[in-house]
Specification:
two-stranded antiparallel ribbon; alpha/beta; single chain; Carbamate kinase
Length: about 300
């Protein structure tokens, strides 16, 4: 055996030793993992990510996946010639956009994730928030929004965008108790059966609260939270809920990061232990965030003292 091979083997064994206390700590705990559409569009990346989820699943962590699909929805809308409007990180959803969202979210993306998980021996179940009345929602009322370019207030009707009234986690709990991995797309409905497009981060956060999850992990296309967009050296490795709220108030957070942070702050104040923003396109990012001391993304906790406990 060469010295290089011996060093490589030793490194792998050291990583297993480092992971052991985390495996012991999280066995039987619930993780909610949210995918963005950008994470799921690359087949090789999705297969790799399914392997990481399979490892969490095999060591006894209860995993619930929530996914959106905004990138794929935008691409389909462009092909169909349906104009899209995004305001404060939220998509205005007209009749045509809602029909496309049903096809993309509850159809293609959900099935692709299930197929990747099946490839790794995971017994996954595909759902939308409409199944089992998981996501009970109401239509978002029109609201006044300040246009950041003009500084003027505009009256915006978001169309078929929903706000969550209640999460019914009974079906999810049954599936998790029976050893299944639920995969939930970001749709919900009201009592009359009207379907709404709902922000996937918001659904993931609400489900994490209802399931009393140990962690919410948001897989994004960035390595974490940056003080200044596009400047890797300004990445924040760990911060508290109060510090996250401060980023919004000071204007350091913008665009789609605003609703993401708002959801995180809310769930941390309602019992979820920690939230993580990591790059879902980076191989082994999920495993490194969960099973190593250093992690890879940004970890947000409810109180300053929790930062000392690591991942």
């Amino acid at each position: 055996m060469t010295d290089t091979t011996e060093v490589g083997n030793q490194l792998r064994l050291d990583l297993l030793r480092e992971a052991l206390p985390y495996i012991q700590r999280f066995k039987g705990k619930t993780f909610v993992v949210k995918f963005s559409g950008k994470v799921t569009e690359d087949h090789a990346g999705l297969i790799s990510l399914a392997e990481e989820l399979a490892l969490l699943y095999q060591v006894g962590i209860r995993v619930c996946v929530v996914h959106g699909g905004g990138k794929q929805l935008t691409e389909l809308a462009q092909k169909m010639g349906v104009e899209q409007t995004i305001i404060e990180g939220r998509r205005v959803t007209d009749d045509e956009t809602l029909e496309m969202a049903k096809m993309i979210f509850a159809g293609k993306i959900n099935t692709d994730i299930l197929a990747a998980l099946r490839h790794r021996g995971v017994e996954a179940v595909g759902l939308s928030g409409v199944d089992g009345n998981i996501v009970h929602a109401e239509r978002r009322p029109p609201k006044e929004v300040v246009n950041l370019e003009t500084g003027e207030s505009e009256h915006v009707d978001f169309g078929h965008v929903g706000d969550i009234l209640e999460i019914n986690a009974r079906l999810l709990t049954v599936l998790l108790d029976q050893g299944y991995l639920p995969v939930v797309s970001s749709l919900g409905a009201d009592a009359e059966g009207k379907v709404f497009n709902i922000n996937a981060d918001t659904i993931a956060s609400a489900i994490a609260i209802q399931l009393k999850a140990e962690k919410l992990v948001l897989l994004s296309d960035v390595d974490g939270i940056y003080l200044r967009a596009g400047e890797p050296q300004t990445k924040l490795s760990r911060l508290t809920a109060d510090e996250a709220a401060g980023l919004i108030e000071k204007g350091s957070a913008s665009g789609g990061m605003i609703p993401k942070l708002q959801s995180i702050v809310e769930l941390l104040r309602r019992g979820v232990k920690s939230a993580h923003i990591i790059n879902g396109n980076s191989r082994n990012a999920l495993l490194a965030e969960v099973f190593t001391d250093k992690g890879t993304g940004t970890m947000i906790v409810s109180e300053p003292g929790a930062l000392a406990t690591g991942s």
